[in-house]
Each structure stands twice: as structure tokens, then as C-alpha cells.
């Protein structure tokens, strides 16, 4: 997609961080926007801000982990704008960080995978058929650099799945000679509210027990929030994404800082050796 003026973008997780930056950038390109997020108040404030600058915006309060809510949001988008041209599946949460993976509860899996993986699947199922039908448009799924390096926590399990899912979509579209374009965005460390994601953990998926790992998780979230605040600005990622969409780039990485870890993972796999430095990529609080 080279021209954006007058076209329609559907963006999830649009009330904060990167989703917000994408919406701002695409509004400047003259796109009409369907903005989906779980948090109604920041979404309403952001909508007003965009509208005051002349953008056409449809705010949608949606939990992407709920297939029914996503279907309704897609229907409302099509009813308002008649079509969709660019779908950006960006909503995400940091998920379970509260102990070793085998101690996670089913509610931890339901929340972490529900938003980060199933949220993407639900939006693809609701809107990709529109792009396929008109044989045009662009789908972006947000994975992460953690999808490219060794698995280290539940979040990275979900992001590995998003990456493989997006590769599969692309290969299935290619087999059908579809002209729909696909990208997988892999951000590194970006200054957003990702590690405050627990604020959005729904009641139905609260933990049933307070394990010792909960304190570890709380400290890790604070440390990681601090670390992200020193990362790349979301507005810069928006420029990188726009450029990647224009050039129809499949893998869009925000920087090359993770290349050594990506290379060492594949080198270990091909050499058949046990990985060194697992702790190097594992997210753990300092003590
Ligand atoms: N920040 C980083 O360093 C980083 C790195 C790699 C990947 N990512 C990914 O980027 C994407 C955007 O996250 P961000 O970093 O901008 O974080 P953020 O917390 O600033 O924004 C995420 C948005 O998603 C919304 N959200 C959460 N749960 C939702 C749900 N169930 N349904 C709908 N919306 C929901 C939140 O309300 C929030 O507005 C996520 O997929 C994240 O995993 C972030």
C-alpha cells in the first residue's frame, strides 16, 4: 500500500503506546480510523483529540480476546466506513511473569494467550476476508523481538505463536495468488505502558492464589516499565511501520539491537548444541 489518503485503518490497542502513535501518524496521512481498545476513557479522550484535528474516527470499546466483541466491532467498522484497507493487530499485555512457567494457572494462560494470540486470530478472522474479497489492502500483526529469540516467558510463547501464525497467513495467501499484503511487526524496547498491562486483566481471569512468584512479578513489572521508558519512542516505530507497509516488507524489525541473540539462537539450533546464556534473555528482577 503506497497511498493512505481516504482509506480506512482498523487498529487494536489504539488508546496507548504504539497503537496510539500509529493512529496519529495515519490520521496525518488522511486515513479514516476505527480505533479499538479495552479502555473506554483514554480511547474517548484520544478520539476527541484526533477529531479536533479533523480526523474521522470510530472509537470501539472492545476486548479482543472475545471473538463476539471483535465481530461486532468489525461489523460497526464496515457499517460506518463501508470497507477496511489496513488492519493493525496491536493490542497486547505483558501477561504472566509471576514464577516459572509450570506454576502458571489456567487463568494466566487464558489472559496472556487470550489477548496476545487469540486477539490477533479473532481480528484476522473478522476482517481478513474483507481484504481477500477485494484482493487489496494490508494486514499487520504485532509480534515482538521476543518472537525471534529464545523463548523465555509466557509473553514470548504468545509472540512466537503470532509470528508463526502470520507467516502461515502469508503463505496461504501466496498459494491463492492473493494481492493482500502482510507484515509482522517486531518491536524491540519501546517506551509504552506495556508492563502496566495487569490493569486490564479481566475479573474472570484473576489469579485464584497469591503465589510467592506474585511479588517477583510485581518487581519485574516495575523494573521493565522503567527500562521501557528509556526505549524508542512509539512515534519512531510509527515511521518505521509506515515505511515497511509502503515497501511491502514482511518482517519489520524496529532496530538491529537483537540481531546477536537471533543469530545465536539459530546457530545453536543448527549446531545442535545446548544454548549458552539462557539467563541473558530471560526477564528476571535484579533480586
Ligand atoms: N513496548 C514494547 O517494548 C513492545 C515490544 C515488543 C512488542 N510490543 C507489543 O506492542 C503492542 C502494543 O503494546 P504497547 O507496547 O504499545 O503497550 P500499551 O500498554 O501502551 O498499549 C497496549 C494497548 O492495548 C490495550 N489492550 C490491552 N488488553 C486489551 C484487550 N483485551 N482488548 C483490547 N485492547 C486491549 C490497552 O488498553 C492499551 O491501550 C503489544 O502487542 C505489545 O505486546 C511492545
Key structural traits:
alpha/beta, binds nicotinamide-adenine-dinucleotide, 9 helices, 7-stranded parallel β-sheet
What percentage of amino acids are in beta strands? Answer: 5-15%
CATH fold node name: Rossmann fold
Structural class: alpha/beta
User: How many beta-strand elements?
Assistant: 7
Helix percent reads 40-55%
Average of pLDDT: 94
Order of helices and strands: EHEHEHEHEHEHHEHH
Strand order of the largest sheet: 3-2-1-4-5-6-7
Count of DSSP-assigned helices? 9
Q: Class in CATH?
A: Alpha Beta
Whole-number count of domains: 1
N→C terminal distance: 47 Å
- Rg from Cα: 19 Å
CATH superfamily caption? NAD(P)-binding Rossmann-like Domain
The 3D shape can be described as globular
Largest sheet: 7 strands, parallel
Descriptive account of the structure:
The chain is an alpha/beta fold and 287 residues long. It has one domain (8-281): NAD(P)-binding Rossmann-like Domain (Rossmann fold, 3-Layer(aba) Sandwich), CATH 3.40.50.720. The chain is built from nine helices and seven strands; from the N terminus they run βαβαβαβαβαβααβαα. A seven-stranded parallel β-sheet has the order 3-2-1-4-5-6-7, sandwiched between helices. Helix 1 packs across helix 7 and helix 3 packs parallel to helix 4. 42% of the residues are buried. The chain binds nicotinamide-adenine-dinucleotide. The site of nicotinamide-adenine-dinucleotide has 32 residues, from helix 1 and helix 4.
